Amino acid sequence: MGTKASLSLTDSVLELSGVGPKVEEKLNRVGILTIQDCLFHLPLRYQDKTRLSLIGTLQAGQEALVEGTIEITQVKFGRRRSLLCLISDGTGTLMLRFFHFSRAQQQRLEKGTVLRCYGQIRKGSQSLEIAHPEYRHIDPDNAPAIEKQLTAIYPLTEGLQQRTLQKLATQALSVLSKDEDKPAELLPDEILSTFDLPDLVYALSYVHCPPPEADLQLLKARQHPTQQRLSFEELLSQHLSLQRVRQKTQALQATPMKSQGQLRKKFMQQLAFTLTPTQEKVLGEIEQDLKKDIPMLRLLQGDVGSGKTVVSALAALRVLESDCQVALMAPTELLAEQHFQTFSQWFKDMDVEILLITGKASKSDRDANLNVLNNKQRVIAIGTHALFQKDISFSNLGLIIIDEQHRFGVHQRLSLLDKGIVEDYLPHQLIMTATPIPRTLAMTVYADLDISIIDAPPPNRQEINTVVISNDRRNEISARIKTACDDGRQVYWVCTLIEESEVLQCQTATETFQQLSERLDGVQIGLIHGRMKNREKEAIMASFKENKIQLLVATTVIEVGVDVPNASLMIIENAERLGLFQLHQLRGRVGRGSVKSDCVLMYQAPLGDLARSRLETLRNTNDGFEIAEKDLQLRGPGELTGTRQTGLPDLRIADILRDARLLGDVQRAAKMLQEKYPQHVDLLIKRWLGKELDYSNV
Ligand code: ADP
Ligand code: MG
């Protein structure tokens, strides 16, 4: 294999044969830097080339390795020119079909030649066939042996060949088996036996080259004990690293907020409602933290519409009153702008300076903002991530509030934490999220945070009534919209697309806007999408807030945070394209007042099973936690879940939702390691989060 005997797992991939600077760069792009990283780049699926199937026994849909003699080869001219090659092994015939082929290739496929081929069997017009099989010529007197192990198929990255990845894995496995003086196993025997986990070398060898009898279904679903063992180790490292962050932040200083809360009374007087007991409770927890001289790191979890904003405003007030500055970060400009309006209203007459800081500010605005930040104490700066860019500096930052944290992700959260540290000082942090995740999950995902939960909505809320209808009944909806508007209510119409293409999304929204304008005489209609200028977006939102616009046609830009309590009807087109979390968030734009609200989920038939279950779940419940549980079940084993926009970490092997049932054990193992084997903790963190851990050099 040409692998140097002295290599170790943490050496660069450059050391492996077949890797030059070009391949290295491509590998780096998918996060493969060291030899060990090759081992943690797991196969996506497997091919079974360990047995020959008889052609007569083949079934459409399966992948199979067969051997047969060519009976006829011919070029067919039709809609598409193709080369057809019929093979037989005495038990049946199989057609091989090539759409791209060279003359030389064609000439070598002559009658009587024996081929061994692999591919997916499908039903052709006359017989079963394989399109573009992998094939090789066989000399019947000297046939090569078939594979002894299942063949791993790796997730590809542009420009990397499957063969390259397979060869790298083989080399890395041989390094692993020789790496005697630096044992790769980082889990102590006690952990392995307590949690019944196979050892690392076995697990890695198994997942890269499973034996022929391996359970392919289990492997595909990533539920095989060897894969679960790797997920376990990764989740454990994730958990440990967040706990490490926590320990380090607890060792830092924060400014204790001394104010007695005099402004609170004034604030409550002009507020249109009183706080619920739950809001009071979580505010109490936050205020306790703010009094301390260690930094608060608190997560405020509450379903969409549960009233987190007002709690954060009162926390901010406490800090401002103590003559410290506050930063409130929102994931979108639209939401930042809305918070700016709301807070300006709430904090009027309180001698508090309120700034709006987004990416597109002019130089003079920026200078003015900086001037305020440098010279005034009672300042709250509201904005997007632009708040924490290099050219912005706070003179006395006491509290950072992050709204809708799930839109930022774990890394952004941690890098912000890192930026906040000045010498051994860190501002308090309040992190808000609407992602309703079960407690065991929260304890790992947010292992660095204390958690406060708003578990009941404000009073007088009415359940949102959700209906699911097919897109072709969209005309019926016009009447509903008309009625809502005539009653003085307002409506959202959300256009979605499969692709994340903003251009297409805006185009669709624009077309829908035009159609609806023609159909709905007498209804004031507005359009908002991501490609509009900030000014335009602000103007549209302001008109909608003031009920000058009755129907707002929007892209998913309104997904987070937008709060117009008078809106009572939400229509989502092509709802089947969105995930449960996202739909729940969108629906949460209505049902924010005391009026009865409705949500219409339109879908494009035919609906797949999974999409159907998702829509049914939404029809059956408004409860975010219930929806989260259901989401876990629906994702089920084997589904590629994608944790994007849920605020959950994107891991290499584990999927925190799919593997949620490991988390109880992971938490117990973390405890055991910290108590009995602290020397393993660093090694584990380094292995799994090595390069990302820069932020917590706290
Ligand atoms: P979220 O938790 O999704 O951020 P918001 O803070 O936007 O929710 O609150 C949703 C709506 O509920 C807002 O219009 C807000 O003014 C209102 N609200 C919040 N708390 C109460 C309360 N205690 N009583 C009545 N309405 C409330
Ligand atoms: Mg909110």
Folded structure, characterized:
The protein is α/β, with parallel strands linked by helices. The chain folds into four domains: 99 residues, no CATH class; 87 residues, OB fold (Dihydrolipoamide Acetyltransferase, E2P) (Beta Barrel); 205 residues, Rossmann fold, CATH 3.40.50.300; 158 residues, Rossmann fold, CATH 3.40.50.300. 38% of the residues lie in helices and 17% in strands. The chain has 23 helices and 22 strands. The protein has a seven-stranded mixed beta sheet with strand order 6-7-4-3-2-5-8, with no helix packed on it. The protein has a seven-stranded parallel beta sheet with strand order 12-13-11-14-15-10-16, sandwiched between helices. Strand 21, helix 19 and strand 22 form a beta-alpha-beta unit. The radius of gyration is 30 Å and the shape is globular. Adenosine-5'-diphosphate (ADP) binds next to helix 11.
Which descriptors would you attach to this protein?
single chain, 698 residues, alpha/beta, OB fold (Dihydrolipoamide Acetyltransferase, E2P), Rossmann fold, seven-stranded mixed β-sheet, seven-stranded parallel β-sheet, 17% strand, globular, binds adenosine-5'-diphosphate
**Uncertain regions spanning at least 5 consecutive residues:** 637-642, 692-698
Q: Approximately what portion of the residues adopt beta-strand conformation?
A: 15-25%
Nearest-angstrom radius of gyration?
30 Å
CATH class of the largest domain: Alpha Beta
Annotation, overall tally of beta strands:
22
